[in-house]
Amino acid sequence: MNQERLLERITINPEVMVGKPTIRGLRITVEQILKALAGGVTVQDLLGDYPELEPQDIHAVLLYAAEKGTN
After folding, report:
1. What does each of the 71 residues of the chain score in pLDDT, given as a tens digit?
2. Is domain 3-69 classified as CATH 1.20.120.140?
3. Disulfide engineering: 19 pairs with which of 14, 26, 34, 64, CB 3.0-4.6 Å?
4. Which positions ≥6 away from 11 have C-beta within 8 Å?
């Protein structure tokens, strides 16, 4: 999956999680996933804890963070 398609998984809607970037409009924020990963939670554990997530969602979060952090 190319980077542009990955980033389409990150959505911002003022009516969902007060406008924070979320994954595919779910009530799971980019921030939640990043903090979990930084805290040592594995990708496999995240996918188990949030069955609605897909591996590409984690890649999208990391790409989004990288692009926002460098702009």
Report:
1. 799 999 999 999 999 999 999 999 999 999 999 999 999 999 999 999 999 999 999 999 999 999 987 66
2. no
3. 14
4. 21, 22, 23, 24, 25
